[in-house]
Amino acid sequence: KKEAAIAVAKLNTLLYPKEAYPYENLGNKLYHTNKLKEALVTYKKSLVLNPKNKRVQKAIAKIEETQQGD
C-alpha cells in the first residue's frame, strides 16, 4: 500500500509540476517510508515553488539534522 501511495504521489508531481503541494505530499510519503534522501530532494523542490512553507522548512531541517550523524 505504501508503494502504491508513493506511485500516486509521484504521478501528482507530474500532473502538477508547478504546484508545491504535490511535492510536499510525496516528500511526506517518502519520509514516512524512511526514504530520507529522496524525501529531502522532493521537499526542496516543494520549497522552491513555495519558499514560505514552514512545514517543508521544518521537514528539511529534521532530515538534514538526522543525516549529520551519518
Structural class based on helices, strands and sheet pairing: mainly alpha
- Report on the biggest sheet: none
Rounded to the nearest angstrom, the radius of gyration is 12 Å
Helix segment tally: 4
Beta strand %: under 5%
pLDDT averaged over residues? 96
Which word captures the global form? flat
- Percent helix: over 70%
Task: Give the SSE map.
Layout: H1 2-15, H2 20-32, H3 36-49, H4 54-67
Helix pairs in contact: 1-2, 2-3, 3-4
Description:
The protein is mainly α. 79% of the residues lie in helices and 0% in strands. It contains 4 helices and no strands. The mean pLDDT is 96.
Keywords:
70 residues, mainly alpha, 4 helices, 79% helix
Short account of what is shown:
By secondary structure, the protein is mainly α. The protein contains four helices and no strands.
